[in-house]
Each structure stands twice: as structure tokens, then as C-alpha cells.
């Protein structure tokens, strides 16, 4: 499959608990070097923020991410990484221009995790991992993955190991 002339890699993962989602995030965190962009989609309660918490914990970042819905963006950092957790629930594209994307993109340590990312899809580079969290019966989830470039290909491969 191609998008804008680029090969798009796909993957599918399944989890059946918050603990499994966090373990998946911890495995993913081991592949992060800075410069990654991840779009997290799915309904409320699908596990997006649980995934972000798992990454932050595995990276040893100060603070535990919570839903960023009321503050739009939260930053967590240590000496090695800066994680930007962005939550754009209910926002439109014309409302997100002053979040400081230029600074984030210039920082080699930055990892951008964006929930409800559609308002910023045109403001960030094409090379990103897109994760779609799908609620199934009970605590079961399916997570559809799409990588859109060489950096996100590495992320997808780390998740699918």
C-alpha cells in the first residue's frame, strides 16, 4: 500500500489488559532514540494514555502521564529524553498553531506522542507511526499499526517483535 508515493508498513497487535498494554509500551520504549512521532487514535478508554504511561515509565521519565485533554500538552523529561504527550480531543486544526511544534521537531531528544492527532497531521512530518486502538469484547484491544517512513518503520518493527 502506498501513501503519497511511500510504502506504508502495517502491523496488528492484541492486548487483553492494561498490564499487557504497558508491557507492549515498555518493549517499544527500548527502541526509542528521540525524533519519533506517534499518532494514537481510538475511542475514550481504548488504552492510548495507558500506552503513553508505559512508555514514560520504561524511559524513567519524571511524572506519570495522565490524560492531557485539559492541558493539551504535557512534557516529561530526563537527561536522555523529552516526551511530549499531546491530547487534541475536540480541537480543530486552526486551534493548534501555538503549541511549539517547531521547537519539538528541532530537539533530537524529543518523542512526540499525540492522542486525537488529526488537527496536527499537516503540521508534523509524514514519517510517523500511527496506532489505532480498537475496543473489543471485555478488556481486549486490537492495535492497528501503520508506519510512514524509515524512523517509524523501526518503531513498527520494535512493536511487532
Written account of the structure:
This protein has helices at 18-29, 48-59, 101-106, 150-159, and strands at 2-3, 6-7, 9-15, 37-41, 73-77, 82-87, 110-115, 129-135, 141-147. With 161 residues, the protein is α/β, with parallel strands linked by helices. It has one domain (2-159): 3-Layer(aba) Sandwich (Rossmann fold), CATH 3.40.50. Strands 3-9-8-4-7-6-5 form a 7-stranded mixed β-sheet. A two-stranded antiparallel ribbon has the order 1-2. Helix 1 packs across helix 2 (48-59). The longest helix has 12 residues, at 18-29. It is globular.
Protein traits:
single chain; 161 residues; alpha/beta; Rossmann fold; 7-stranded mixed sheet; two-stranded antiparallel sheet; 4 helices; 9 strands; 25% helix
In short:
This protein is of the alpha/beta class and about 160 residues long.
Please write out the topology.
Elements: E1 2-3, E2 6-7, E3 9-15, H1 18-29, E4 37-41, H2 48-59, E5 73-77, E6 82-87, H3 101-106, E7 110-115, E8 129-135, E9 141-147, H4 150-159
Parallel strand pairs: 4-7, 4-8, 6-7
Antiparallel strand pairs: 1-2, 3-9, 5-6, 8-9
* Main sheet makeup: 7 strands, mixed
| Largest sheet: spatial strand order | 3-9-8-4-7-6-5
Query: Helical percent range?
Result: 10-25%
Would you list the SSEs in sequence order as H and E?
EEEHEHEEHEEEH
| Total helical elements | 4
Number of strands: 9
Assign the CATH class: Alpha Beta
The radius of gyration is 15 Å
Instruction: Note the beta-strand portion.
Output: 25-35%
Amino acid at each position: 500500500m502506498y501513501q503519497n508515493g511511500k510504502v506504508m508498513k502495517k502491523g496488528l497487535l492484541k492486548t487483553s489488559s492494561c498490564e499487557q498494554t504497558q508491557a507492549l509500551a515498555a518493549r517499544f520504549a527500548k527502541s526509542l532514540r528521540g525524533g519519533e512521532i506517534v499518532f494514537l487514535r481510538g475511542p475514550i478508554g481504548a488504552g492510548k494514555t495507558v500506552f503513553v504511561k508505559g512508555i514514560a515509565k520504561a524511559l524513567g521519565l519524571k511524572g506519570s502521564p495522565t490524560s492531557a485533554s485539559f492541558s493539551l500538552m504535557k512534557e516529561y523529561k530526563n537527561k536522555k529524553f523529552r516526551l511530549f504527550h499531546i491530547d487534541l480531543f475536540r480541537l480543530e486544526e486552526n486551534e493548534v498553531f501555538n503549541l511549539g511544534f517547531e521547537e519539538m521537531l528541532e530537539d533530537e531528544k524529543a518523542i512526540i506522542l499525540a492522542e486525537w492527532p488529526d488537527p496536527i497531521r499537516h503540521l508534523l512530518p509524514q514519517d510517523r507511526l500511527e496506532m489505532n486502538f480498537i475496543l473489543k469484547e471485555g478488556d481486549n484491544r486490537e492495535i492497528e499499526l501503520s508506519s510512514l517512513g524509515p524512523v517509524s518503520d523501526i518503531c513498527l518493527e520494535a512493536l511487532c517483535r
